[in-house]
Write a structure and sequence with these properties.
It is a single chain. With 161 residues, the protein is α+β, with helices and mostly antiparallel strands. It has one domain: Roll (Nuclear Transport Factor 2, Chain: A), CATH 3.10.450.50. Helices cover 40% and strands 39% of the residues. Strands 1, 2, 3, 4, 5, 6 and 7 form a seven-stranded mixed beta sheet that branches. The protein is elongated and about 65 Å long. The two termini are 33 Å apart.
Length: 161
């Protein structure tokens, strides 16, 4: 392979990684606006059809359950009073058609005329490339409350598998 061809291949691979990272960041950052506006189908579409959202308190399996969580009474009350689900910039590791993104998330809520931090968590997003683009196959969300589970997720940042 000629030197120019090698350079072109390297640039092409770099561009692909950058495009993938951008798409993953856009996907993850779309979660907050979707759930805070009550757009259950938009939020659920972040996942694959059989994707899982696993939190400390519950797990939702499949898009229908994730959409139902957004439509549920607890979530609807939270957003009716004012809430902001904010996701930090993820650390992303890509390997072919799979990726892992690790980031922090915060949920702010409006209470008695003031805003408070309600939840702070670490998130591990396991993603797969689909014909529709990158989608979450599994999201693990653990509160940062001194638990070993949260530290373990942070320690696995970038590990695929």
């Amino acid at each position: 392979m000629a030197r120019g061809d090698e350079e072109l291949l390297r640039l092409s691979e770099t561009l692909r990684v950058l495009e993938d990272e951008r798409e993953i960041i856009r996907l993850i950052s779309s979660y907050g606006p979707a759930v805070d506006s009550g757009q259950s189908e938009v939020a659920a579409a972040i996942w694959t059809e059989s994707g899982v959202y696993d939190t400390d308190s519950a797990a939702w399996r499949g898009r229908a359950e994730i959409a139902a969580m957004v439509e549920g009474a607890q979530h609807q009350q939270l957003i009716a009073e004012g809430a902001a689900h904010v996701v930090g910039v993820p650390h992303i590791q890509i390997s072919g058609h799979r990726a892992v993104a690790t980031c922090y998330s915060r949920v702010f809520r409006h209470v008695e005329g003031k805003f408070e931090v309600w939840r702070v968590a670490v998130n591990r997003w396991e993603l797969v490339r689909t014909p529709e683009g990158w989608r979450a196959s599994y999201r693990t969300n653990r509160l940062i409350n001194g638990s070993a589970a949260a530290r373990e997720l942070l320690g696995r940042a970038g590990e695929i598998g």
